[in-house]
Design a protein that fits this description.
It is built from 6 helices and no strands. By secondary structure, it is an all-alpha fold. The termini are far apart. Bound molecules: zinc ion (ZN).
Length: about 90
């Protein structure tokens, strides 16, 4: 067995493929933060926030870099997570 096979064998894998960075961030957040971010992404309550502004706010609030394109993709439900959890 190659070293790569060995390494891949122990790598975590999912049946659904990679999740988008929004989903990964949401799963790391406390419930109240998760709701706030979900609301901001969905545009509930405080109107539509641009993906660029959200990207900056996320970086400022959570110290993570989420590209605006990832936010757009998530909003358009083109990412894997929305395919799984349609609402
Ligand atoms: Zn997503």
């Amino acid at each position: 067995m190659s070293k790569l096979d060995d390494a891949l064998r122990s790598a975590p894998r999912t049946h659904k493929g990679p999740r988008c960075s929004i989903a990964a961030l949401l799963s790391d957040l406390a419930p109240e933060e998760r709701k706030a971010l979900t609301d901001a992404i969905d545009g509930d309550g405080m109107g539509r926030i641009t993906a660029t502004a959200l990207s900056i706010a996320i970086g400022s609030a959570y110290g993570v870099d989420i590209h605006r394109a990832s936010i757009d993709r998530h909003r358009r439900h083109e990412c894997l997570c929305s395919r799984r959890e349609s609402k």
